[in-house]
Amino acid sequence: MKSDRRLVLLYIHDEVSPGLRARGGASKWWLGKSLTEHARHIENAGGHLTIRTGATKDVLSDVISETGATAVFWNRRYGGPERALDTDLKANLKQDNIDVMTFNGRLLTEPWDITTGAGTPYKVFTPYWKAMKAAYRAPDALSAPKSLSGPDIKGVTVDDLGLQPTNPDWSGGLEETWTPGEAGAMERLSDFLEGPINTYADDRNRPDLEDGTSRLSPHLHFGEISPAQIWRAVQHGISADNFDESNAMVFLSELVWREFSYVLLYYNPDLATENYNSDFDALPWRKDSDASKAWSAGKTGYPIVDAGMRQLWHTGYMHNRVRMIVASFLTKHLLQPWQVGEDWFWDTLVDADQAANPASWQWTAGSGADAAPYFRVFNPITQGQKFDPNGTYVRRWCPELSDLPDKLLHTPWEADNAALKKAGITLGKTYPKPIVDHPTARQRALDAYDTLKEKRNAA
DNA sequence: TTTTGAGTTGTTCGA
DNA sequence: GTCGAACAACTCAAA
Asked: What is the reported pTM?
């Protein structure tokens, strides 16, 4: 690029173009923090981030006429409505003789790059993962531009976007949990690489451990760190013998699950609303808003489930193991449509992602790609005992159960009156009775899922 | 074209 | 307490 060319750094806050899914509350909070950080970073480098609101098409055309810009650059998006908008935008700009260049800033590879031998997109994770390992080499990092000078055109402030919650401000727990922005992301990565990566294969399943997982998902989602950076850092560590290779590869495989979700989204734009496997259209969900309300409020009476839902509400995050447990509980024990859970997560997760969130919900429900077999119904009691063996996680998020002995912590309904009294618990008052009986609910789920089999056989 | 082996994360039951 | 088998059948991916 010629050195006399100047750059307008522009963020368009577009809430009006058709088809876009409105951001959830937790996502808005993170976005606001992240934009503030990003703007500060750019100011420090001598540049300026311009923020505008409105339809992307209109904003861009204004900015082009104000500045005389001759080219526009952006990173590609993969959701259906986003692709339609971007394709249209590109065509219009080209018609006006504006150069357009788009880049992959979000993924390791484009969703269409890695295909089966037959040229079709992968639908099973393991062969996709093998192909990715064989094909992908992280590019070397480019150095940051020396100067970011550009015209300082008018825009709005981050505050003007109204992204922070007020009345009530529920963001305290998020605030104390996260450091949005590139610096926070880099710190998370280096902390993770300094130790936890070497025990990742087992410890990633332990919600009671503070550092079992990387917790990079929201940073990845908002582009504060790229999967290529992570891949490169991990590969370097493996080559230098700094990391235990098998543990490190499990971590990379999780990064590739994220890629796989984007393949699914790219080829299935309705991923967040429609069953990937349409057989599931016939599944007799129960529509029970009391049940789903108890679930989202963390009042099911199953401690590991409630702990997870409260961690989510408080911090905008839930440990991955617990996500599977609560998702299985909602879709199987309570037989609520997976979309109900997907929606709730969309609103409350700081890492809510249009590919990973629906892909994971569908995986758990059984309707997704490479999904869990229908008879796999997580037992919320044994999962709690296995992965939160000392009850640290449950005690943290359900403090009203704290004084129960470890042995009863995941089954408070089995405590006798003396034990309950000693722990200061009144079931049904200070902590709910189980909303469903596990064996009964499990059987009900298996029966409901069995009807799909019958329908298939009849067809 | 046909065949073959395999497929994220579990639970329960009975020996 | 531990261990292996059953829980289904289907689709995918590659040979």
From this structure: 0.97
